[in-house]
Amino acid sequence: MKLNGKRVALLIGPAFDDSETLYPFYRLKEEGAVVEVVSPAEPGSSIAGNAGIALKVDHSVDTARADQYDALVIPGGRSPDRIRANPEVQRFVREFFEGHKPVASVCHGPQVLINAGVVRGVRMTSWASVAQDVRNAGGLYEDSEVVVDKEAGLVSSRSPADMPAWMRAFVEFAS
Description:
This protein is an alpha/beta fold. Helices cover 31% and strands 22% of the residues. The longest helix has 13 residues, at 18-30. The mean pLDDT is 98.
């Protein structure tokens, strides 16, 4: 259990991609991590994914701080677009990068990173339709299954098909 006792924030909003959220949620728990759902929604409320699966919010992003966690995961779906303009989401994400803590992002997750202003000069990948947004924000886009930018602390992937490799890379990086 490579992440035994480490606390990981799973940052989601409405319409998250169910597979891109549940896969890391359970995979990280298998490695011993304590995974907590962080969202702009109220603690104790439920947020539904694209397929209707709901997760309970553990902490509001309004009060959550990166120093409470060892790592951050940002799944895709429509959730990133729905939460990216929230100033507290942007602050929370920036704190992880400023604190040099591991961050994982998949699919549309980089939309949150772009709005947080943390992608300039960072090697990363995303869903194909987000690639130009990454480039426009100064990110160094690569069309690869997994991209690990050790200096920035980011492990990114393109799609649900990449999730096994994405989580293997993230577990190694975050351990």
